[in-house]
Design brief:
Layout (H helix, E strand, L loop, with lengths): L3 E12 L2 E12 L3 E5 L6 H9 L6 E6 L2 E2 L10 E4 L11 H11 L4 H14 L15 H13 L5 E5 L7 H18 L2 E6 L2 H7 L2 E6 L2 E6 L1 H6 L4 H6 L4 E7 L7 E5 L4 E4 L10 E6 L5 E3 L11 E10 L3 E8 L4 E7 L14 E5 L6 E3 L2
Parallel strand pairs: 3-8, 3-9, 6-7, 7-8
Antiparallel strand pairs: 1-2, 1-4, 4-5, 9-10, 11-12, 11-14, 12-13, 14-20, 15-19, 16-17, 16-19, 17-18
Helix pairs in contact: 2-3, 2-4, 3-4
Length: 363
């Protein structure tokens, strides 16, 4: 049974004429790892600041464990924050950085020592108590920042792009470590990022924000495979879009006609009536390329010419100019002799995809 621990109800927050959050509502369940995902300026960090108590909304409510947090200062809220740039005290060693909040609580020296040792063991930093921030690697600084927040045993941990300053290899390592840490502690993590892969790897749920509004919230798989809006689809990597008119649904699925005469198919029309205008989208990795039609009667079979091939390490990306006009992008695993690997620039190809991989959006 789920239990809300943080709720935003109809929250509006403005900075001058800029609307950071516009009648925004979201429920965070106790113990979950939820990620706020979106581009810069979408309102992600504003949400953290409202929950932490650094800001107050102009309208709406922020509830923590069912209680309205209006007017409550940050130090009495059962939350703690980890920032992108760590904010460690350079003149304090690791032990005293982690112990800083416990000192403010006037705990005994033995209790402080016990709790600091336990949390440093948890974040895999035993034996580093006497080191100063300047003597630590980026990953170690991140662990110290986490330990300093976690040692206070908050019910909610707010993480504001805490991996943003790390190099890619260390960032991926810390993603896994953060996820494992959450599974062990079972406290609520509210994580902010603009990195789609990071959100998918770590989160129980992802909330996608756009210009201060909630576009969609769901599991990573739901957000990736079944985006509800064109914005979410584009932000999650969909590159191919066709403006279409929907025909009456048939046994084969929903027939769609483009302005330049292409006939495309989707499994269903997303509830739109016949004659409605819509956008049909398809992910690059859903496309199959071939030099000859694998099935001449297959739906969504388009002919074109490869105009660009981009090697991406683990995959290749093909840009195809369609015979009927427009372009489409395909991506496939880069396995030797597999997929569409041998296909190069200038070759005539066929592109097809299953109607079940078509996405339909109506505004």
């Amino acid at each position: 049974m789920t239990e809300p621990i943080v709720e935003l109800r109809g929250v509006t927050k403005r900075y001058g004429k800029h609307v950071a959050l516009d009648d925004f509502s979201l429920v965070v369940q106790r113990g979950e790892f939820i990620t706020l995902l979106g581009p810069s300026g979408s309102g992600k960090t504003t949400i953290l600041r409202l929950v932490a108590g650094f800001e107050q909304p102009q309208a709406g409510q922020v509830l923590i464990q069912g209680q309205d947090a209006a007017g409550l200062p940050p130090y009495v809220r059962d939350v703690n924050t980890v920032f992108q740039h760590f904010a460690l005290f350079p003149h304090l060693d690791v032990f005293h950085n982690v112990a800083f909040g416990l000192d403010q609580m006037k705990l005994t020296r033995d209790e402080i020592r016990h709790r600091v040792k336990a949390i440093l063991d948890l974040v895999e930093l035993p034996g580093k108590e006497d080191r100063y921030p300047s003597q630590l690697s980026g990953g170690e600084k991140q662990r110290v920042a986490l330990a300093r927040a976690l040692v206070l045993e908050p019910s909610v941990l707010l993480l504001d792009e805490p991996l943003g300053s790390l190099d890619e290899k260390l960032r991926k390592q810390m993603q896994v470590e953060l996820k494992r840490l959450h599974e062990r502690l079972k406290i609520t993590f509210i994580f902010v990022t603009h990195d789609q892969e990071e959100a998918l790897v770590m989160s129980d749920r992802v909330a996608v924000l756009n210009r201060g509004r909630l576009e969609q919230v769901g599991t990573g798989e739901e957000i990736y495979e079944r985006p509800r809006t064109r914005f979410v689809a584009e932000f999650m990597g969909v590159e191919n879009f066709f403006e279409v008119t929907l025909a009456a649904p048939a046994a084969e699925g929903c027939r769609c006609e483009t302005r330049n005469g292409l006939t495309l198919w989707a499994a269903e029309g997303n509830g739109a009536p016949a004659g409605a205008t819509a956008t049909l989208a398809v992910r690059p990795e859903a496309l199959r390329l071939s030099l000859a039609p694998l099935n001449p009667a297959a739906p969504n079979l388009l002919a074109g010419e490869v105009v660009e091939v981009i090697y991406e390490g683990g995959s290749r990306r093909w840009v195809i100019a369609l015979s009927g006009g427009g372009r489409i992008v395909a991506r496939d695993a880069n396995s030797p002799g597999g997929g569409a690997g041998p296909i190069g620039t200038g070759q005539n190809v066929y592109v097809c995809w299953d109607p079940g991989r078509s996405l339909i959006f109506t505004d």
